[in-house]
Amino acid sequence: MIDIIYDTSILEGSCYIEVFPDKYNGACWNSSSIFFTEENFCYMMPVFEKCYQKFDYYAFNEIGIETWKEITNELEKMKQFLANHPNPCSLKDVLGFPFAYSETEFMENTDTNIKQLILMITIFNHG
Question: At the top level of its lineage, which domain of life is listed (predicted)?
Answer without folding.
Answer: Bacteria
